[in-house]
Amino acid sequence: MDNEQTITPMTEAEERTDTQVFGFWLYLMTDLIIFGVLFAVYFVLRGATFGGPASYDLFSLRSALAETIVLLTSSFTCGLALVAAQRGKANQTIGWLAATFALGAAFLALELTELSRFVATGASPERSAFLSAFFTLVGTHGLHIGVGLLWIAVAIVQVRLRGLTAGTRSKLTRFALFWHFLDIVWIFIFSTVYLYGII
Amino acid sequence: MTVGVFDPQGPIAGQERDLIVLAIGLMLLIAIPMLILLYTFAWRYRAGNKKSADAYQPDHVGSFGRQLLWWCIPATLIAVLAVINWKTTHALDPFAPIPSSTPPLTVEVVALQWKWLFIYPQQGIATVNWLEFPARTPVHFLLTADAPMSSFWIPQLGSQIYAMSAMQTQLYLEASSTGEFVGKDTEINGAGYAGMTFTADAVSESDFNAWVAGVKASSSAPALTMGAYNALAAPSAYVPPAFYSSADPNLYDYVLMKYMVPSSSPVMTGMKM
Amino acid sequence: MEHFLLGDLTWSALPHQWFTVGATATIVAGLAVLAGLLTYLKKWKWLWKEWLTSTDPKKIGIMYIVMASVMLFRGGLDAAMIWLQQAMSAGNAPGFLGAAHGYLDANHFQQIFTAHGDIMVFFVTMGFFFGLINLIVPLQIGARDLAFPFMNSLGFWLYVAGAVFINMFFVIGGQFAGSGWLSLPPLSELQYSPGTGIDYWVWSLQISGLGSLLGGINFVATILKMRAKGMTLMKMPLFTWTSLCSMVLVIASFPVLTITTLLLWADRFFGMHFFTTTAGGNPMLYVNLIWMWGHPEVYILVIPAFGIFSEVVSTFSGKRIFGYVSMVMAAIGITLLSFLVWLHHFFTMGAGADVDAFFGIMTGVIAIPTAVQIFNWIATMYRGRIRFTTPMMYFLGFAGIFTMGGMAGVLLSIPGADFELHNSLFLVAHFHTMIVSAALFGIFAGITYWFPKVTGFTLNERIGRRAFWLWVVGYFVSFIPLYILGFLGATRRLDHYAASTGWQPLFITAGVGVLIIAAGALTQVWQVIVSIRERDEHRDTTGDPWGGHSLEWSTPSPVPYYSFAVAPEVDSRDAFWEMKKRGWKPGPAAPGTYKDIVMAKNTGMAIYLSGFVFLGAFGLVWHIIWLAVAGIGGAIACFIIQSFDEDTEYILPAAEVERLDRMAWERNK
Question: What is each CA distance from B82 to B18, B77, C410, C411, C559, in whole angstroms?
Answer without folding.
Answer: 16, 9, 11, 11, 50
